[in-house]
Amino acid sequence: MSGQPEHSEHKSDPDSDATGAENGSTDQETADQDGPNPASDEVTLESMEAKADENWNLYLRAVAEAENIRKRAVRDVENARKYSLEGFGRDMLAVVDSLEMGLAAAAAPDAAADTHRQGTEATLNLLVTTLERFGVMVIDPEGEPFNPEWHEAISLQPSDDAEPGSVLKVIQKGYSLNGRLLRPACVIVAAEQA
Predict the structure, then answer these.
(1) Does residue 1 sit within a domain?
(2) pLDDT class for 89, splitting at 50, 70, 90?
(3) Is pLDDT of 10 > 70?
(4) How many domains does the chain divide into?
(5) What is the percent of the chain with per-residue pLDDT over 90, rounded to a whole number?
(6) Nearest to 186 by CA among 145, 148, 129
(7) Enclosing H/E stretch for 183
(8) What phi and psi, each to the nearest 5 degrees, are found at residue 168?
(9) Is residue 190 within 8 Å of residue 168, measured between CB atoms?
(10) Is 113 helix (H, G, I), strand (E, B) or coil?
């Protein structure tokens, strides 16, 4: 019924044996084609296991690489935080050297006040230049309109010369770092005459 001739007894029909031999097939081969083949299943299972092992190794490598990248990023951030002021510190050493030379010159028996003042001015200029190179700018708003975002008024003072609401006098200069306020300038603001 399956479309293949049925053989009840293989030995009693020599023609069927000859026909099977002529065709090159046996009953075992026919059964292998129709049913599961253990040898073929074993090969398929081995190839699947090999592929699974390969994928597992790729996964482990990807996880290890991700962990290495994370550790490297943490180390880079830590080093950036630790050494971010390295250039600033190096440039500030010139200011320290200048101050030390000024103190040594002032301690000399023949030190003149004018020479000491000039040395101090030179050191201050060096310091301001170094700060500006790192984005620290001086806020010196004398004569400018009062700006509460950048200035801190400590008092009002009537003035004939200054415009009311403008900065009459700077008591302490302010500083900003790349546009962000570090310290407001402490100022006296001109008030209207009474």
Answers:
(1) no
(2) confident
(3) no
(4) 3
(5) 47
(6) 148
(7) strand 180-183
(8) -85, -45
(9) yes
(10) helix
Question: Domain range spanning residue 43?
Answer: 37-84
**In the 8-state DSSP scheme, what is residue 2?**
-
| pLDDT tens digit sequence for 130-143 | 999 989 999 999 99
| pLDDT at residue 161 in the model | 87
Rounded to whole angstroms, the Cα distance separating 54 from 77 reads 35
Question: Cβ neighbours of residue 5 under 8 Å, at least 6 residues apart?
Answer: 16
Q: Is residue 32 part of a domain?
A: no
Is residue 173 within 8 A of residue 139, CB to CB? The reply is yes
State the pLDDT at residue 9.
45
Q: What is the pLDDT of residue 34?
A: 57
CATH number at residue 181: 2.30.22.10
- The mean pLDDT of 63-71, rounded to a whole number, is 97
DSSP-assigned letters across all residues of 52-94? HHHHHHHHHHHHHHHHHHHHHHHHHHHHHHHHTTHHHHHHHHH
Task: Specify the DSSP class assigned to residue 166.
Answer: B
